Protein: DUF559 domain-containing protein
Organism: Mesorhizobium vachelliae
Amino acid sequence: MGTRDQSSSPPQSGGEVARAKPETERGTPSPPSRRSPEKIARARELRHGDNQAEAILWSELKARKLGGYKFVRQMPIGPYFADFACRSQKLVVELDGSQHAGSSYDRRRDEFMRSEGFSVLRFWSFDVLKNTRSVCETVLAALEGRLAEDVVAPDLRFVLATRKTGDSAL
């Protein structure tokens, strides 16, 4: 019986081989996800849509380009998905097409997000395509607290989350 060279064999107990296994295979449970697999899949599906206005605005918001604020896309908030959200400032930015004009569904969404502590800023997709700079300046104003009350205009809707109790403007 010949002797085998033990130096070329992997260690039999622990060592490098055990450390190379993924944590889930080592018996340490992975932490549970904050979101359900269904919501993750839906958010991914929404991010890969063919919306040119969203793509243009995302190029202005991503990588902390706008005032150093971090944004995410298609963030689940309760049963809804925010087009863009800045978690630190609790601001949601929504882009709407003409099918959203006067939408009671959108008003319910806005109120739900407000109840969750998020202010909501809505723009027409057309305005992002034609006036990207103005849209970005308005988003920055909301982030910096320069929009201090609800705004309803033909080209903009802003729902402020923080209200004093008893405020008659509600």
Q: What stands out?
A: Helices lie at 15-20, 37-47, 52-61, 104-115, 125-130, 132-143.
